Amino acid sequence: MPESQREVQALLALNQAERPKRVRRLLTHFGSAQEALAAANWTAAVGSRAPEQRPTQADFAWAAEQWQRLCAAGGRCLAPADADYPPLLGQIAAPPPVLFALGPDDLVPPTIAIVGSRKASDSGKLIAAELARGLVAQGICIVSGMAFGIDAAAHEAALAAGGRTIAVLGCGADVPYPRTHIPLYRQIRERGAIVSEFAWGAQPERGAFPRRNRIISGLSLGVVIVEAPQKSGALITVQHALDQNREVFAVPGDVRSGRNAGCHQLIKDGAKLVENVEDVLEELTMWAVPRPQSAPAPTLPPEDESVYALLSRQPRHIDELAQHSALPPATLLDVLLRLELDGLVDQLAGKRFLRRAG
Which of 85, 107, 159, 323 is deepest in the core (most CB within 10 A)? Predict the structure, then answer.
């Protein structure tokens, strides 16, 4: 079994057996899930108040199944210690010890969350779309929860404008929810990223959505709330943003409908009032710069093209590439070497490869 596979399966089994807070402590103390499992005693890492919850054979069998499903879908499993774990998310008080991701996006800033009412008015959805288009024009990625209303409007506008967008789910990353958003889910998966801390195949549950909201804000430099009543679930995301020391922005609206009462209260409490995209950008001057346009895809021989298509700016291990390539291992290595010599691919330590920037 490849080393990368061993570590991911160890991490999944550990996360299945232990509470997330203790898993984070174990990873911080021992440096990896495998080292934690090999340690005779965890007292120095997690204390002695509660008994150790070591993974059982059933946990390891479950982890092996998760790995197989992850690889079949072309997904990723990230831990806070990984170099490609989202940097902003790693700064929060309770980063997910396991983060599943689908899609080519690298999950890096600049990122802004746009959230709001599921029962949004047409006006609210238009405002969310305008803000999303304006932000992606400045190279800023839109983060949201793929829910009805404001979330969907922001994702759709970002995609239509050719920008980046990340959807954070309250179920497994492989479970499109709501079901009517399957076309949107597929577009985000192909061009952006779908992320979740919940296991592969996990179905949506009511308590999962408030929990995932800390990831929406944690991935973002700030949160823009568009059209939210006084008891909107979107306000949970705002509270997480405040706890994480992130910027909070609110769009004002009609005072009679009640749709905007939550936004108006946030403004009274000190949130930045937003009427247009410039109101957001002026708070993010260090990030709001146009991203360079990608160069046209190179013309390559079919064999090289098939391998290049498997790569992105997200590093992938040679074993993972071999699983998704029809080429023999020796041929695959020859192709990767050619691509590296042509300046199209970079090789990182541990036989990991990624497309070269630009």
Answer: 107
Give the number of residues written for the chain: 358
Domains in the chain with CATH codes: 3-73 (no CATH), 111-281 (3.40.50.450), 302-355 (1.10.10.10)
**Per-residue pLDDT reduced to its tens digit, 115-146:** 999 999 999 999 999 999 999 999 999 999 99
| Count of beta carbons in the 10 Å neighbourhood of residue 132 | 30
Q: 134 with 128: CB under 8 angstroms?
A: no
Specify the 3-state DSSP secondary structure of 60: helix
Q: Closest by alpha carbon to 8, among 101, 105, 104?
A: 101
In terms of pLDDT, which residue wins out, 324 or 104? 104
Give pLDDT tens digits for 347-358. Answer: 877 788 888 754
HSE-CB at 324 with a 13 A cutoff on CA atoms is: 19
